[in-house]
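note to self: dont lose this again. the chain is below, predicted strucutre after it. 251 aa total, dont forget to put it in the shared folder this time
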Amino acid sequence: MKIAFLASRAPVAQTARAALIGRYGDSRPEDADVVVSLGGDGFMLETLQEMLDLDVPVYGMNRGTIGFLMNEYNESGLIERLEAAEEEIVRPLSMRAMTRNGEEHHALAINEVSLLRSGPQAAKLKILVDGRQRLEELVCDGALVATPAGSTAYNYSAHGPILPIGADVLALTPIAAFRPRRWRGALLPSEACVRFEVQEADKRPVMAHADSESFVDVDWVEIRTEQKVTHRILFDHGHGLEERLISEQFA
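---
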């Protein structure tokens, strides 16, 4: 089995990479049967983005602080673990954002796309779903749209629901909503197009984030599932995404 080892800049990840290469060798990602990502969830997301053009599964081993997408680190028995691993197919969100200076930006997000206020005043957002206005004004610190795979990340911290990995839905979750105060968000079909329009953007500026990519001073943002892109993620047998999502709800 040809393995490509990628690691974050953290010393512990670099040390692990050197040890694993000494034991199993190293291949270029384009020549590998599997890519092993060493770091935390953030680096795992970076690795998956880098592998977009390669039909290569990615197996993460935790050498960071958070590891929901990662497997336990162990130098021994890696080939056997990879051969027995469960593969999950994840489709990312596609974000299209227009900034107030007229620039259009595109990005993919495996976990979520979030909008956050970037000034001292609360954001005011209008929400449309498939072209139909659903909320005229949400006064808040922000809002996000999360995939099932990302529903235990920022979405869960914002009191959004954990979504089963096989669910054909997205979570639309407000962040510190002030008006309507009791609005808790919505569950939407995965094929829905969600559009946020920033109100009073001159005095209530808003940033948009697609996983680790950020764009300042946005005017509007459209989010939908990107059906043409898939990510292949490997998990140790018995510890796939479905099991992790269920376990998280009983933690």
